[in-house]
Amino acid sequence: MGAGSRKLMHRLLPPYRKITEEEKRKLVEEYGDISLFPTILSTDPVVKALGAKPGDVIEFGRERGGKYYRVVVEAGV
Amino acid sequence: MSSGEGKLFVIDEVEFGILSPEEIRKIGKVKLSTPQIYDEDGRPVRGGPLDPRMGVIEPGEVCQTCGNTLKKCPGHFGVIELARPVLHIAFTKYIYQALASTCMKCKRVLLPKEECERLRKLVKEGKKTPLEVAKIVYNRTRKVKECPHCGTPVKKIKFTPPLTFYLEDETTRLWPNDIRAWLEDIRDEDCILVGFDPKNSRPENTVLTVILVPPITIRPSITLETGEKSEDDLTHKLVDILRANISLKEAIQGGAPASTVEDHMYMLEINVGTLYRNTGMGIPLAVHRTKRPLKALMDRWQGKTGRFRLNLVGKRVNYSSRTVITPDTMIDLDEVGVPISIAKVLTIPVHVTESNIEEVKELVKRGADEHPGANYVIRPTGDRVKISSMNKDRLIEELEPGYVVERHLRDGDPVIFNRHPSLHRLSILGHRVRVLPYNSFTLHPAVCPPYNADFDGDEMNVHAPQLFGARVEVSEILNVKNNMLSPRFGGAIVGPRQDYITSLYKLTRKDRFLTKAELGRILATLEEPIDPPEPAILEPIQLWTGKQAVSVFIPEDIDHEDRASVCEKCDKEGGVCEKELCPYEAYVVIKRGQLLWGVLDSRTIGAMSEEHFTLLDKLIRDLGGEKSSAILSKLLKAALKPPHSLVSLRIEDIELPSEHIAKIERMIEESRREAVKIAERLRKEELEPIPGMSLEDTAELQIVRTLNSVRTRAEKLVRSTMTMRNSLYMMAKTKARGSPVLLTEMAALVGQQSIKGKRISRGYKGRTLSCYRRGATDPEARGFIRSSYRKGLTPSEYFAHAIAGRETLVDKGLRTAESGYAYRRIVNALQDLTVDYDWTVRDSHGRIIQFKFGGDGLDPCFDFHGNPINVHKIVREEAEEHKNEKKISSKQAEKIIDEYREVPEWIRRQVKNEVERVELSEAAIRGVMDRVFEAYDKIRLEPGSAIGIVSAESIGEPATQLTLRTFHTPGMPEITIVMGLPRIAELIDAVKTPKSPYVVAYLKGEYARDKKKAQEVANRILEAKLSDLIEEENIYYELMQVEYVLDVEKLREHNLTVEDVEKALSKISKVSVERTGDKSILITIQADSMAKMRAKLIKVENTVVKGIPGAKRVVVKEENGENVIHIEGAVLKQVLELEEIDTTRTYSSNVHEVIALFGIEAGRNLLVEELSKVLSNQGIVVDRRHLELLADIMTRRGELLQVGRLGVVKYEKGVLANASYELTVQNIVKAAVSGKRDKIGGVLESIIVGRAPEVGEAIVKVFWGEPS
Predict the structure, then answer these.
(1) Nearest to A45 among B854, B1144, B1159 (CB)
(2) DSSP 8-state code for residue B787
(3) Contact call for residues B202 and B180 (beta carbons, < 8 A)
(4) Which of B344, B596, B727, B1164 is the most buried (most CB within 10 A)?
(5) How many CA atoms lie within 13 A of B280 on its CB side?
(6) What 8-state DSSP symbol labels residue B941?
(7) What is the complex's ipTM, to 2 decimals?
(8) Do A11 and B1144 touch (CB under 8 A)?
(9) Residue B459 three-state SS
(10) Residue contacts between A and B (CB atoms, under 8 Å)
């Protein structure tokens, strides 16, 4: 986690974490082209809290045990 | 090329562009030169607008260009060479952009080289579209004074719509040929920067030098009955263009003065312009002789009746029929009664083979007129011969394998049955034909709910699938039996209603006994002999209970426990449920297929039980569609046997005993007096207002409450007098039809009528009807009806009733229109989403929307209100199977269960809960899990499922039922919250500033517990403006001073002092504050004009003295044992900054606010919650998975996208999808300019080009041999 980032917590915000490069590789293996993944803007509070950079993948917990992955993208492009 | 034959191609991609003059000349071979349409003999003139070389429109004629007749000639284009170039009206916006962004001398883009390079790269990398870059270029070049390339000073371009361009302030006109020359000189690499694609649409091609004339086939002339010929709008336009063109040419050649040439030029421009567009372009409307505006080429595309939505996306079909529907209880659930007259017209092709030739000959022999006959014989050569008594024998002789015979529809044929509006998948189902001698389609009443059909004149459509594959799909995939479950709420949608419910109730009641004959009639519906059960009573005569009769239909392995609709909910308020001893027989127990206790009614067996897992659901889940529909079919036939199916009503059913009537009269009088008293108190201003409400509103609320209490009390009275012997009451209690409220209206009083949720107040000046005094306070004058329907309404009551009745009707009309649009938008956003082989939900471009639908991949159809798999039964059976084996601990069991990772976690948990109760061996656990997995595998969404459309329909279909005007959540009259359809619209529109935002603030520890402390916090949040605190104001304009006398009461309310106000005001610039009394302050304003002073004054009065600006209303409410503050206003950020607030739970109803503070993922969850709130508020159940999918497509890009043309559709869909959705012309023009390519992939695009959409079975592809 980057310096000065505080833990962002809310009832509406499911558990989230930045996944490792290894996990990312596996994800691409399973689902293919990463450019087709859902995205999250680099300006998003969650991205900031994690100190994630464009290209990183953030994992969110979802309903009924599901997982969701968003790729960080540069905002404004 | 002679058309009609040749290879078949599949369209993969559509490329848009603008034709160059050379290309136009290549396409249009016929040169048009004269405006004359016909010669003296009435024949089309060569070189005229209807030159016969452009195609044939008369049958029998032969085309002079391609040699084909009407059917095969595709039509041929012509050209008109223009005397001078003319601007294409649809492109003027882009022409302007190109001119304004380039240098008039060197024609380079007016930006430094590096800048250009950077922008070009953006396009190349696909980060921006050419048009987006063009906009940036245009905006940046606004400030450029001289060309960075050649140093030429930049002159401003002025565009005066519709078609005129000037160079710098209307001095030098830029003529179309100048513009063309300018655009020609723009280099290819610069084209991209001004929005054009140099390959397919060079900018100069937006200036026309030749016109491509559409073939006659798309503008046929019509011969009227009088013999007069009437030409198409386009032909008229072409005549005008040709005329104007010739005049201009002559003027130029004749050396006419410049002004004359300009006039002619103008005429040509206008006429060419209106050929393409004749709406909203700022040109004078071209009109027909009858003043009707001519329909130009591009106008033909747009709107619901345009080319796209009428012809390309919606297509007409053959082999279909339509007529009125009527009920038939004797046919099977999945049958449809088809009139003979229709069966003789709808046909199915039969391929003659050696094995069926005799049968087919028989059909041909009967011919077209006798029912199971045939209409056409198709020879192997392809000729179709109509069967008639004349050629019958010859045709029979001729028949041999290889022939095809079109035979009549007959019993058992699979057909598609449909009722409009087709709001969900179940509006189109497969049925089996039953040819019957009536004139209407008949359908089983239990299949009404999926179609939302009734028999008050509804019409429905039948389609006969032709190909063998299609017939199989209809009977195996589309049929009723496999579609008894709604994907919206995951329960049965086909099933009994109304009469079936009362019948089954009466049949299963304790006092119902059947004689042998009666039982026999019921058992006869089984269609196979069975041994009757032991009679319940042996002497003096054998009698069976109704429950026994019903149990015959229930399979032996069904167990069920439930509460019927007739349940009085005795255990709700501290009472005890007597269970099996229930006096109402509401406690239902079925053990091993035997109905032991309780009755069957709406809740236990009815269709469309949205919230509740019913017996019917259980039957379908455990037995599958085939078996359960057979059982249902038979049970329903048995239900309709007399006498239990008979219901009779009498007027006494809605009569109350006289003492009750007197009591109700007294109640009415009492509350009347009470209401008058409240009105009186309001007049005298003695009323204590409810916080946050005005006095009038408070009085109104109290009056309405008082009056409504009469109705509630009367309802109790009615309930207490009526018994189940009363058929009306029975219908209401069993939820077969009607409700206690309606009974009250019939028997006791109709009650308050309302418009817009308020008592009736409009009509005459100060009164609702002329028979009342002005300002009358008695309830009758405001629409209170004290009569019952039984008694009859007085004229004034009748009038009030009509007012409310009218509102209902108007409301319904508005609602259907609005929900229809919302529906269309949701469908457009979601329709391309399908499940992929890796279980992800993706759109047609392969973009991932969800990694597994709903997180667990389950088909919402089979969710069965959270019980998708009968775990109990599986565990029981496996325990039995492995009962002698060594048991393992529950910890070990759980470990094994969790090995089955593919089974969703929540289903595994259900297994764990079940396993905890029984000891099992390892083999048993594995057996259980193998079966659970197998069951799960059957009910998960298959790859190819068009889940997007299903989800869209599941949200859109119930939207019709949503109210148009709901502003409150129950129990919170103080805070207004937009609910119902407007709220749904707001959410899917991703409105930045919703109408009624609110914040729900949770508090930390002691503040949550202590009401007083919570109230203190609330008070600090509540905003107080100066204007809220003044008692009196005196304005001295000459001195530019204002004296405010503050309201001490209000100050105290807000916990403020005069000093606080002083302090707040002193912060405003150019205002000085002075204390002039113990509760008055004087304000001096420095302003140089009266207007400025007034403006300042408004600012002063709007000064927020205390609280969070925008927190308009604040209410503390106790929820689940803690105090929660509800705040009206979009103030989440400010609220979160307060120390007492629990920031992990406090939220706002404004999705944008939450996204800004907690991120997109929190926003999407809020979106789901808010959507779900609106729906559940009105008692509509929609599986959350559908809402989640909608929220996911709205948030996929990391920012909130609107569902519609500015959001999801724009960013996620192609040109054709956009064009067929909204703004057809604009989208096509845009695509043409930027040379867009549209991959055909989505549902809409596929339909447009005539391809099977890649959904469902069509995702399967067969490769022949090795792909190269």
Answers:
(1) B1159
(2) S
(3) no
(4) B1164
(5) 6
(6) P
(7) 0.95
(8) yes
(9) strand
(10) 108
